[in-house]
Amino acid sequence: MTPFALMGDLPTPTLMANYNKVILMGNLTRDPEPRTTQSGLSVCKLGLAVNRKRDGETTTCFVDLTAFGKSAEILTQYCKKGDPLLVDGRLDFSTWEGKDGSKRNKLEVIIENFQLMGNRSESEDADSRTAPKDAMPF
């Protein structure tokens, strides 16, 4: 019995629903790289290392991230290499032609929401790098 059997005769869907959501937690692999578009929009490029332990072995996945607007400004101001970060976003696939004429492509995560998870180093003054609550993008 299917879940829809109790609802009567429903039409069979012809299209599959699409869902593009990524949630990752890891450590920044480099300092944020801030930029500004010609229109004045803030953009921030980051790298995230996400570790996975399985059968006593650790593997690391390196993920490129991009943030826009206020999120980009906050990440640039309060994050640095090694800091833990929780991100919620979507996958984006880009293609372009390289300087040598070759086709290039890249899969990255566009940050929609994030949470600063604190500093990796406990010796730093946490208050000096804590974002004010009214500055958070969500």
Can you tell me about this structure?
There is one protein chain. The termini are far apart. The protein has one domain: OB fold (Dihydrolipoamide Acetyltransferase, E2P). It contains one helix and six strands. β3 (42-54) and β4 form a beta hairpin. The chain is mainly β and 138 residues long. Strands 1-3-4-6-5 form a five-stranded mixed beta barrel.
List the helices and strands and how they pair.
Elements lengths: L21 E7 L4 E4 L5 E13 L2 E12 H10 L5 E14 L5 E14 L22
Parallel strand pairs: 4-6
Antiparallel strand pairs: 1-3, 1-5, 2-3, 3-4, 5-6
Short description:
This protein is mainly beta and 138 residues long.
The portion of residues assigned to helices is under 10%
The dominant shape is: globular
Give the number of DSSP strands: 6
Reported for the largest beta sheet, the result is:
5 strands, mixed, barrel
Radius of gyration: 20 Å
Count of alpha/pi helices: 1
State the separation between the terminal residues, measured CA to CA: 42 Å
User: In percent terms, what proportion of residues is strand?
Assistant: over 45%
Q: Say what the CATH topology is.
A: OB fold (Dihydrolipoamide Acetyltransferase, E2P)
Structural descriptors:
138 residues, mainly beta, OB fold (Dihydrolipoamide Acetyltransferase, E2P), 5-stranded mixed β-barrel, 1 helix, 6 strands, 46% strand, globular
